[in-house]
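From the pipeline queue, job 12 of 40. The input is one protein chain; the requested action is below.

Action: predict structure.
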Amino acid sequence: MNVARIVRTGASAGLAVWGFAMLVAPAAAARAATRGGPVPPEPIVRVLGGRRVVQHVLVAGTSSAAIAWVSVTTDVLHSASMVAAARIWPQYRKAELTSAAIAAGSAILTALGASGGARQPQ
């Protein structure tokens, strides 16, 4: 297993765990992410958590570059939508921007793993 695959798998495992927390304990996960800011409605947090679990279990469980790039695209779109949501629903800005940052980080780590950006010397 190369370094890129280890990065992608490790990041996806951690993100799947975070998604599981959002799914089973949405209020607690949202409070942890916002550190005291207003918490979005639980059904929204659960849906986003479920999507994150499915997405990152798929990424961690395969070596397919195509699945990794679909995940990157999903995270980029999610990040952009959270920035837009922060303008539409400013009362949840802290949660939305935290979610945008996590998605952007996820996209970067998954892209590095998909492209072999963290290659081992040959």
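Job complete. The mean pLDDT is 87.
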